[in-house]
Amino acid sequence: MIEIRNVWKRFDDNVILENISATVKEGEFVTLVGASGCGKSTFLRMLLGTDSPSQGSILLDGKAIPSEPDSGRGVVFQQYSVFPHLTVLENVVIARAFERSKLGFLWGAAKKAAREEAAELLNIVGLSHMLHRYPDELSGGMRQRLAIAQALILKPRILLLDEPFGALDPGIRADMHELVLNLWRKHKLTVFMVTHDLKEGFHLGTRLWVFDKLRVDPQAPNAYGAGITYDLPVGACEPELLEEIDGSLSANKQAEEI
Amino acid sequence: MKRLINVRPSRVWRFGLALLPFAVILLLYISASDARLAENPQDKLLPSFTQMGDAIQRLAFEPSKRSGDYLFWQDTLSSLRRLGIGMAIAASLGMLFGLLTGALPVVNASFAPLLTVVSLVPPMALLPVLFIVFGLGEVSKVALIAIGITPFIARDIQKRSLEIPREQLVKAQTLGANSWQIIVRVLIPQLLPRLIDAVRLSLGSAWLFLIAAEAIASTDGLGYRVFLVRRYLSMDVILPYVAWIALLAFIIDYALAKFSAVAFPWHAQQEGKS
């Protein structure tokens, strides 16, 4: 479904991403891990359409991926994903309002139907007792549940998650993993998730991409960008491999710091 | 003994401590006024509270001998009308310019520099221009307030709309929103409480412009009256008028704050957190 062809990303002289090529099939759950600043979030932004490759192309169903965010690609950021001025329920209803009315407001029966649909979805993510609260009254975990519900109401084909659980406690994180896996299976989504937690990558999804520099020039650390150093099917690898990847990531990081 | 920075007064103490400076100023005034009046009963500089009460009684509750109007209320009404119309125009224009320059990079490119330059022009220096263009009537006074306040509000709203996290705008786009829907459903609702904040902050300058315009060319208004009776050294009118202006300003500010808290409960929560 998605084809990535020799994608490069440069900012001035700094090469961020270097010659990335990959193919992702419908329904895959790809986890992107790597050291901070290695370009995995940049890559996600290219899939989202808020950033574009300096060279190369990303194809969706054989056509260039739209260079502007649209309702085919849902997104959850680490924070600021929800609208603070709307209640939990309205935060989800607003997606239908955008879709079904030119002005952005729903009335009467359409509004009622959208509210019922939203309430149902919020029930699935476990927020049915918070429908009329504002996001600032919610805990971090609840806010991310809301952001996920909001991203899913329009049933996008692709769901992009940018370190969605980075700010959460480990216990809550486990709950959220469960939720995301369930929703992924149920809605047959194609998911890309960025995380800096390698274990999360091994636990979730079907495929793991490790972003790291293939070459390092100690005199010019920014001369080479990151590529996909490992592309692994999840569940089929040994714990030693995890340690090895972990080791190589930190080794490169150290080399850069020196 | 706790460190001084950790000593917090209880509620009762806080209330008492808040009243204390007012009481001290009042006492100082009364004793100074008494001393001067004891020396010379005709003294006009520090009138007693009875004299001020008489002056206000005369202006507020007896019709003027010349026109039959109740001058105090007439002045208040005229001034509040000018202030209200001027602020309404400034708030609407400021919101419009601020929103468009904040939300649309194309508009920003052509209008933001202009806005910066315009906001650097001292509005008081434009007053003669306004008098020449609009005459000495109501329009020039309202225009002074509007021209003086609009750039401030516009720049504030522009800054605030740029402060709204980009993630929210991207999120709205992934929910299929077009530019209009994002402006109407995401930006404007979040900017309205900020507009009220900006109006509250600029009310002080608005009063300044109002009183200056009234002092120069007017036939009624609080500022007009204060400057008129200055000729007769009528401190017994000036002081109560100044106190009344301060009270009006306080009431307007308080009402706006209350309105914001009731109409935008989520905004109060955000403010509490940050």
From TrEMBL, chain A:
PROSITE patterns: ABC_TRANSPORTER_1 (PS00211), ABC_TRANSPORTER_2 (PS50893)
Pfam family, one: ABC_tran
Coiled-coil residue windows: none
Keywords for the protein's UniProt record, in alphabetical order: ATP-binding, Nucleotide-binding, Transport
GO MF annotation list: ATP binding; ATP hydrolysis activity
Gene3D superfamilies, A to Z: P-loop containing nucleotide triphosphate hydrolases
Keyword S-adenosyl-L-methionine: no
InterPro entries for this protein: AAA+_ATPase, ABC_SmlMolc_Importer, ABC_transporter-like_ATP-bd, ABC_transporter-like_CS, P-loop_NTPase
Domain (ABC transporter) ranges: 2-238
Name of this chain's protein: NitT/TauT family transport system ATP-binding protein
Automatic annotation (TrEMBL), chain B:
Domain of life where this protein originates: Bacteria
Predominant location: membrane
Transmembrane regions: 12-32, 83-107, 114-136, 198-217, 237-256
Gene Ontology cellular-component terms listed: plasma membrane
CDD domains linked to this entry: TM_PBP2
Residue ranges constituting the ABC transmembrane type-1 domain according to the UniProt record: 76-260
Pfam family, one: BPD_transp_1
Compartments where located: Cell membrane
Biological process, per Gene Ontology: transmembrane transport
Signal peptide: none
Protein topology in the membrane: Multi-pass membrane protein
Entry-linked PROSITE patterns: ABC_TM1
Protein family (similarity comment): Belongs to the binding-protein-dependent transport system permease family.
Official protein name in the record: NitT/TauT family transport system permease protein
